[in-house]
Write a structure and sequence with these properties.
mainly alpha; three-stranded mixed sheet; two-stranded antiparallel sheet; 5 strands; globular; binds zinc ion
Length: 435
């Protein structure tokens, strides 16, 4: 990795432009994207000193982290640094091979997100759609919440009764809670199944591995803390009882072919093979998260297409959890219908964060459209308060990744996996998914 500092780099850039202007017969010095990358990594680490949620993963030189934490540079200075770096890269011609062009574009949009997060840390409040466009390179469709009422009506018919729908659904779902003493066995079986299906299509580095931990008192339900060297720490939050369908969700999303696979492929293809150090840091509030969450959620249907998930759950996970297998049909029907409600969370987050509804209203709406208990709805709103516009990355991200995989991979499983693996191992941005 290059050890160029920001100042030295500025001098190189000026020389490059100078040569191009005064002596066009001499070949200009090519842009030093490695130097930009180092500046970007150090900047992200420096923002992490102000915002504990910002650096999701980092496995580059340890000295850079120590340096960033020791010299806690002020937010105004970091903001100016991000803007200057972004301007410098933007001013360069977009020429180069496909991968270099993608790298340049990636650096610009990631820096735009870093700059935006710094504006927010500095006290600026952005409207929901503006925030997601700048941080995640995407905006979610804006629908009236009543759009989802027809789905609630269908679920209401499936689980009839006089009590409010959220109470009925809660009672229905309580039949599918994984008993605490079986949780680890079920999660391990799910992760094994997700991994085996992924390995049929994707080659992961030798020695790749993960550790599974159970934690409490978090605003999220699961988290992958990627550590580098193809190793992930996966944590599952046990604040609330875990429903059976979360096992495959979490196994695919956090593990295979989701976050663990994505990070391991980026590390192998971009950091190790190409020396692109910017991929050794993962700023959470950035376009990379839409790709990460979108591919992780799409990963569930990649690993278990069509009826494969239902069969796996019925044959492997229901018995592992000691649950009644005769209940599976209604359960699968419920899940299919409730999946269509995912985008409703964006509407609640948008209205709440834009100040159009109160916290109490946001909880009540989360309870209604999430068909869940007050406590779980409160956790969902606390997630929105912590991560804000990040919520679009799950549902919109999955839809964008799915469209991309279908457009590039077609209907065959081989074609889809090829497009999916290619997406995981490349510096693509959300707006590139539209191509
Ligand atoms: Zn995730």
């Amino acid at each position: 990795m290059p050890g160029t500092t920001f100042r030295t780099f500025t001098a190189i850039a000026i020389t490059a432009f100078g040569l191009a202007a005064c002596a066009p017969e001499e070949a200009p010095v090519p842009p030093d994207y490695d130097a930009f990358a180092e500046q970007y990594v150090k900047l992200v680490l420096a923002v992490g000193a102000h915002d504990a949620n910002f650096v999701d993963a980092y496995y580059g030189p340890e000295a850079w982290r120590t340096e960033a934490t020791a010299n806690k540079t002020g937010i105004a200075e970091l903001k100016a640094e991000a803007a200057a770096l972004m301007e410098q890269i933007t001013a360069l011609p977009a020429a180069g091979d496909g991968m270099t062009a993608a790298r340049r574009n990636y650096q610009i949009k990631q820096l735009r997100a870093v700059h935006t997060r710094l504006r927010m840390l500095d006290g600026e409040t952005l409207a929901f759609d503006e925030e997601t466009a700048l941080l995640y390179d995407a905006t979610a469709p804006d629908r009236d919440l009543t759009y989802y009422d027809a789905i609630l009506d269908e679920i209401s018919a499936l689980i009839p009764g006089d009590a409010p729908l959220s109470d009925r659904v809660n009672a229905f779902r309580s039949q599918f809670v994984i008993p605490e003493d079986r949780l680890d066995a079920v999660m391990t079986a799910a992760l094994d199944g997700c991994r085996a299906r992924t390995m049929e299509h994707i080659t992961l580095p030798d020695g790749e591995r993960f550790t599974l931990e159970y934690v409490k008192d978090k605003p999220w339900s699961g988290y992958n803390w990627y550590q580098g060297n193809a190793y992930s720490l996966i944590q599952i939050n046990t604040d609330f009882p875990i429903y059976l369908d979360r096992a495959v969700d979490l196994g695919c999303h956090e593990g295979y072919p989701g976050h663990h696979t994505y990070n391991a492929l980026l590390e192998t293809s971009l950091v190790n093979e190409r020396g692109w150090v910017e991929f050794s840091v993962y700023p959470l509030f950035s376009p990379q998260s839409l790709i990460a969450e979108g591919t992780a959620n799409l990963g569930i249907e990649m690993a278990f297409p069509g009826t494969a998930r239902m069969e796996f759950e019925r044959d492997v996970l229901f018995p592992a959890a000691g649950l009644d297998p005769t209940l599976t049909d209604a359960y699968f029907e419920f899940r299919e219908l409730s999946g269509d409600l995912a985008f409703s969370r964006n509407e609640i987050a948008r209205d709440y964060l834009n100040g159009d509804i109160s916290r109490e209203e946001a909880i009540a709406l989360s309870q209604k459209y999430g068909m869940t208990s007050f406590e779980r709805a409160e956790q969902s709103v606390s997630f929105i308060e912590t991560y804000r516009g990040y919520v679009i990355n799950y549902n919109l991200g999955a839809e964008m990744a799915r469209d991309y995989v279908t457009r590039h991979g077609g209907d065959s499983q081989d074609g889809r996996w090829k497009a999916y693996a290619d997406l995981l191992a490349s510096p693509r941005l959300p707006s590139d998914l539209l191509e």
